[in-house]
Write a structure and sequence with these properties.
about 475 residues; single chain; six-stranded parallel β-sheet; alpha/beta; 22 helices; 3 domains
Length: about 475
């Protein structure tokens, strides 16, 4: 195991808060594809903690053509965790895709001897599989408020509603996410467990040498670590860089596919001498990067989905290294701590960015920040989640599917078409009636024997009516 994996493994194998989970024998995470390229996320922290108690399988819908061997791969960074690739899902083929996916997961369950799985869903596209698999219970973990997203199809929202309606437990990462789910579904049993941080992972005093070396050229160092995608307000970044030329804005993380406008602005930002993109980094480097910086920054767009629901993990992760943070406006993090400054406007952001740093932050504010991070440790979040889920996974509870709700809401057409297609692919066609040989037919008709087995010289002397009768009986 490499150093990064070893460090992550140690952080994930502390004492378990739950030791008597007799109702389940495995947890299957229904996820979006791209797990291997993700930085440490909400999914990571829950998978690592479940894996201390029962085997965890991360389902990745990344196959166009399913592989016949259907073998899971160990997730070497999380002991007790595997990655199973399954068929990707399409809107017009969800029935066939769900059948294939269910077959793949059934096969894996059979290989491992799992009989009582808990399903933990993040991906609404897998609503068909979520319903078709027999499970002790279903938990939908709402890390995004898709009801505030634009550009999603009507079918996606039907899938989302199916996933929510078939869930025994719904967990939301902010009150904004929970409120939307309650409003859209009428369910009042949505529970809120906010994002947190892995306190043990971020303890230490080492600093990243590469980033620390930049102090020779700049007065201060500011850091952003995470996905560089459509959430980032690149115009805000450009304004901050222009207003504070003596501060290095260091970006770490993969760049997603951007709109043309965002891509142009990002390219313009990178031309500034005080902005540098260092590329993706392993999660094991994050604590050292944060300790090497003076201030963390989260420059997100003022979009409804973010303003109402955003609670970035990086806010507390930076804080766990005593790094003060300035963030764009997101209601769920307002008032969390004095050293986490939430700016309402661009001018507020630029101003706070220029005055906030580790040296100038009051010691009392850093003590408060440490206490907030302790209170939001993912071990505590997991204990809270288990307490909410435990009533749904009792050892006496039957293992069931939830197909009725799914077919009612998504439509029976694709499901029936898939079933008929698979039935026809294995069905054996009826044999056509076997035509008897002329000899067999002749033997069944005494008159035909008389008419047709006589020598031709004699048969020609028979009356024509008898010859016709013989031919007719032979051909019957």
């Amino acid at each position: 195991m490499n150093v990064a994996a070893d460090q992550l493994s140690r952080a994930a194998t502390r004492s378990s808060p739950v030791e008597q989970l007799s109702g389940i024998d495995s947890v299957y995470f229904l996820m979006f594809a791209g797990w291997r390229d993700e930085m440490m996320s909400n999914r990571w922290h829950y998978a690592a903690r479940w894996a201390r108690n029962v085997p965890v399988v991360l389902l990745q819908p990344n196959q166009i053509a399913p592989r016949i061997e259907n073998q899971a791969e160990p997730e070497v960074r999380i002991p007790g965790c595997e990655i199973l690739s399954i068929r990707a899902t399409g809107e017009s083929t969800y029935g066939a895709d769900a059948l294939i996916q269910a077959g793949q997961v059934y096969d894996h369950m059979r290989q491992e001897g799992f009989r009582r799985p808990l399903l933990w869903c993040y991906n609404p596209h897998l609503a068909g599989l979520y319903a078709a698999l027999p499970a002790v219970a279903r938990v939908y973990h709402a890390t995004e408020n898709y009801f505030h997203f634009s550009g999603l199809s009507d079918f996606f929202f039907r899938e989302l509603r199916v996933a929510l309606s078939t869930s025994d437990v719904i967990l939301a990462v902010s009150e904004g996410v929970a409120a939307s789910i309650r409003e859209e579904t009428g369910r009042e049993d949505v529970e809120v467990i906010t994002n947190g941080c892995d306190r043990a992972f971020y303890r230490g005093d080492a600093v990243d040498r590469e980033l620390a070396s930049q102090r020779d050229r700049f007065d201060r160092v500011a850091v952003y670590a995470g996905n560089i995608n459509g959430r980032v307000d690149f115009e805000l970044v450009d304004a901050v860089a222009a207003a504070h030329p003596s501060t290095l804005l260091a970006f770490y993380g993969p760049v997603a596919v951007l709109t043309q406008e965002d891509a142009r602005t990002w390219a313009r930002v990178l031309r500034r001498r005080n902005v540098r993109h260092f590329g993706p980094v392993p999660s094991s480097r994050l604590p050292d990067l944060y300790r090497a910086a003076d201030v963390g920054f989260i420059p997100y767009k003022r979009e409804r989905a973010l303003v109402e629901n955003g609670f970035p993990l990086k806010a507390l992760e930076m804080g766990a290294t005593a790094l003060p943070v300035v963030s764009s406006y997101m209601k769920p993090i307002v008032g969390v701590a004095e050293a986490l400054v939430v700016a309402h406007t661009t001018d507020d952001f630029i101003s706070a960015f220029g005055t906030l740093d580790r040296v100038r932050t009051r010691p009392e504010a850093l003590v408060e920040l440490a206490a907030v991070c302790d209170a939001n440790d993912y071990d505590e979040k997991f204990i809270s989640a288990v307490r909410l889920v435990t009533p749904a996974i009792s050892a006496e509870k039957a293992v069931t599917t939830s197909l009725d709700v799914t077919l009612h809401q998504l439509g029976t057409g694709p499901w029936y078409d898939a079933c008929v297609s698979y039935w026809k692919s294995v069905a054996v066609p009826e044999r056509p009636p076997r035509r008897r040989s002329r000899f067999e037919r002749v033997l069944r008709r005494p008159a035909a024997v008389t008419a047709l087995l006589l020598p031709a010289s004699i048969r020609r002397r028979l009356p024509s009516a008898l010859r016709r009768l013989g031919r007719h009986l032979a051909e019957d």
